[in-house]
Amino acid sequence: MERICVAVRVRPPETQEPVKGNYWRVEDNGISLHNALGTPISGYSYTFGKYYYALSCICFLLHRLTYILKKCCRIQCLADHVFGYDSKNGNIYEIHTKELIEAAVHGFNGTVFAYGQTSSGKTYTMQGSSEDPGIIRLAVYNVFQSIQSISDREFLIRVSYMEIYNEEINDLLAPENRKLQVHENLERGIFVAGLREEIVNSPEQVFELVELGEANRHVGETNMNVRSSRSHTIFRMVIESRDKNAEINGNSYDKDAVRVSVLNLVDLAGSERVAKTGAGGVRLKEGTHINKSLMSLGTVINKLSEGGGKQRGHVPYRDSKLTRILQPALGGNAKTAIICTVAPEEIHTDETRGTLQFASRAKRVTNCAKVNEVMTDAALLKRQKREIEELRKKLQGSHSGVLEQEILKLRNDMLKFELEREKLAMELEEERKAQLERDRRIMEQQQKIENLSTLVINSDQDRNSYKLNSGENNYPRRLSLEISDQERRSTGNGCRESSLGCRVTLRKEKFQTPAFESFFDGSAEKPRSCSRLADGSPLPSDFGNIADEDMWMTMNKGHVTAELDFLQSTPNRNHSPVASYVSSVHDIVEGYQGEIESLKQQLEKALQEKQEVEKSLENQLLLNDELKMAVSDLQEISKELGIAIPDCKDDQRGMSSYLQERSPQEKSVNGACVSYTDEGKENHFSKLKAKFCKFVNMFDHYKKENSELHQQCQMLNKQLNHAVASLVLNTGNGTEIEGRSLQNEEQVAGKVFTGLEDQTAHRDADKERNKFQSEESMNLWERLKMSAEHVSLLDNKLALLTIEKDAISKALDNELNRQEQKQLDRRFCELLVDELKQVSAEMAGRDTMLALICRGIREFEDTMEEKRSVKLVS
Ligand SMILES: Nc1ncnc2c1ncn2[C@@H]1O[C@H](COP(=O)(O)OP(=O)(O)OP(=O)(O)O)[C@@H](O)[C@H]1O
Question: What GO cellular component entries does it have (predicted)?
């Protein structure tokens, strides 16, 4: 564990004029604010490791003398420092950062960053000038020098340069690589995907790249700095090294051990105040992002400094790209040095104080740096080294230009692929999110549908209970307009918002045919077996294609069973002016229903009678059968006796003529059996004859009865026809619902007729009636629709008027309250006036009393005076 090294650098004043007000003075290893007289101002004094400063100076002097002393002092040397106006970048580098850079060559991660307000000299410190090279240049030189001094290891250095501009990471070496993403994995730790990395062999190569990056960096002019950095830049060197002699020594462990360290040299953009920078538009936006990310950095430092390096809790590295990229440098596996730059001018006192406080906190942060050794057989170092060698050989050849281009192209391709991969990963993630969202929506929809189904079922149950209670037929008595915002929004299965604005619920379990509301817009899907349905009508317009009764039943089944849920007026509408209109419509409907019900009763009665007649007819037929059997018995006996008896099917006349045409002996049926010699036979014959006569009489009687019954039956059928016809005509003026239900009745009636009358003629009549009925129904629906629209319009108006009325009554109430208040005030005033009058009267009384007392006193005094003068005289 080691602490972050923090140095403070005060840049020279902007003007050479002598300071008139307060000024910052650097003394020993501290910085304090002094007034114009040179006296330090209390509370503005910061001292940074005096003891360490002395030690570091000694260390600097003895730096090259003894390695052990250097080693011992290393930690101490990286202690805090304060650098004054006249300090050079070289001094700072030597004292503050050199150890860190050299440690990076030996496999430690290292980060150096400059922090401070705008125009305090961060860029100057990091980049420097031609006379005073900055930390980056000095570090690059130092790295290459160190590499050269280490003869037993081979190195590979890769360089990248990026900026964080408005919270977007851009590649400064490849400006086309924008909006790069930060990733983390076990192998590479935290890294920026798609960042161009250049393999370098010399400081000059690096400087070229730095220049290229600087040219691409975002800078802009503000009131405080002509060339103000508008982005944070991170110059990164990845140093890989491997033991050269490992293969010769046969040490496979050393051969595969590759040290990989990352050195970040960071030039932060400066915190700024809009009032001072005069930033607006783009500059303001940049400034906002800069301040935000610096605030995140401050928060991270605060968090890290709080726990004393042990219990840190959650550190919000992910709050900004800057802290995320610098995560290893802030409390992680890295050596870190911070250079806090401050401006000496009095006007920047607050900012300077802020920077110094940041420095104090950063000083308390501890890191845990260790040598990063990677064990891999396919080390990148080896591979890339070989590649470099190959490329170098090729470059030396005649086609160097072409090859160079090829390399560039390959590199670009590689980057493109990497970017593509990133993009695809992002798209995949987005798609996943979208899918989740879709699933959620579907779930919601399903829930809604379930809710609506429950509603429909409830409604169905309500209606059933209504039916049970009323003991009525299957027709709903009232139309109710149920408007509920929630339900109106719902457009699930079987439940749609109608053009009337009222919600119409279909009974899904029964409806197989076009939805009811489609009658309004004619969008209903036509049933398969009924292709020639009239537009918008639920009933077939042409019955020519209907082959039989079953098909007709099948076709109409959906319509006949289709019902609307109850529609109820909302309570507030009962009192609306249009409610009477609705109720009148309801009355008309109810009138029709009454008629229909009475007709139905008639029909039922007729059907009952008809059933009775049928029953007696059946009995008659049974008797007929018995009679037939008896006749056949008789025929057999007659045959036996040699008498020819006419067939039982013959009518009465046939039987009579037979009896008349009989032989003389046979004619005297009443006992003249003279022609028979055999007395026994005669008796038997007479018995049979009597029996036969009895049967004949019975037959006559039944036949008569039968014809009567037939007549009665025909009469009843006529009555039935008549009842049904009037029922159908009346239904034509009824509602759709009644119309449909009557179709059902008609079908029942049609069934009854089937056995009695000619079906074709009846169907023609049915067709006509149904056509008429459907037209009438549609007309009525149109009227109902219009009236419902009218009702809804009036309701809206009423609602508006109600709101207006409420507002007026509210205003009226307010006015009344005000009036009351005024009256109360007036009353209060009057009371006050009365009281005042009383008080003044009292005062007047007292004045009078006082006057009287005064007069009394005066009189008393006069008397006394007189007495005194009398006394004196006497
Ligand atoms: N130590 C120094 N010696 C001489 N000049 C300096 C020094 N430090 C800063 N300057 C000058 O001050 C000015 C502002 O410095 P610089 O641009 O480095 O500030 P900065 O902190 O990077 O500002 P910003 O955050 O706006 O980018 C520059 O003109 C620079 O040359």
Answer: condensed chromosome, centromeric region; microtubule
40-54, 397-411, 674-688, 699-713: least confidently modelled range: 674-688
Q: What is the mean pLDDT of residues 42-49?
A: 70
Residues 141-192 have pLDDT tens digits of: 999 999 999 988 889 999 999 999 999 999 999 999 999 999 988 777 889 9
Q: Whose CA is nearest to atom 13 of ligand 1?
A: 119
How much is the pLDDT for 461? 54
Cβ of 128 closer than 6 Å to ligand 1, yes or no, is no
Range of lowest pLDDT (29-38, 64-73, 284-293): 64-73
Total residues found in the chain within this entry: 874
* pLDDT (tens digit per residue) in 370-415: 888 776 655 556 666 667 777 777 666 656 677 777 778 888 888 8
**Mean of the per-residue pLDDT values of the chain:** 72
764 band by pLDDT with thresholds 50, 70 and 90: low
- Rounded to 5 degrees, φ, ψ at 182 are -90, 130
Q: At what angle do helices 380-396 and 400-470 cross, to 10 degrees?
A: 130
Residue 746, both tokens: 């008609």
119 Cα–ligand 1 center, Å: 5
680 annotated ligand binder: no
Helix (H) or strand (E) holding 199: strand 198-200
First to last CA, the chain: 121
Ligand 1 closest atom vs CA 227: 17
How many angstroms separate the alpha carbon of residue 87 from the centre of ligand 1?
A: 13
Phi-psi region of 166 (alpha: psi -120 to 50; beta: other; left: phi over 0): left
Is there an atom of ligand 1 within 6 Å of 177 CB?
A: no
CA of 125 to the centre of ligand 1 (A): 8
| E strands in 454-524 | 495-497, 503-505
Q: Which residues pair with 237 in a beta bridge?
A: 159, 263
Q: Is 125 known to sit in a ligand binding site?
A: no
Residue 244 assigned ligand-binding role: no
- Write the residue with the smallest CA distance to atom 31 of ligand 1: 124
Instruction: Give the side-chain half-sphere CA count within 13 A for 562.
Output: 25
Query: ipTM exceeding 0.95?
Result: yes
How far is it, in rounded angstroms, from Cα 183 to Cα 192?
6
- Show the tokens assigned to 772: 């008429």
- ∠19-21-22 over CA atoms, to 5°? 100
Looking only at the bridges linking them, the beta strands covering 168-171 and 257-267 are unpaired
> 3-state SS of 75-126?
HHHCCCEEECCCCCHHHHHHHHHHHHHHHHHCCCCEEEEEEEECCCCHHHHH
pTM over 0.90: no
- Those residues whose C-beta lies under 8 Å from the C-beta of residue 238, and which sit 6 or more positions away, are 157, 158, 159, 160, 197, 260, 261, 262, 263
For residue 781, the CA-to-ligand 1 centroid distance in Å is: 85
Q: Across the strands, what pairs with 165? A: 168
Strand partners, 503: 497
Task: Give the Å distance between the CA of 225 and the centre of ligand 1.
Answer: 8
The one-letter amino acid code at 699 reads F
pLDDT digits (tens, 9 = 90+) for 534-573: 333 333 344 334 334 444 444 444 333 333 333 333 344 4
Q: Which two tokens stand for residue 192?
A: 């920026």
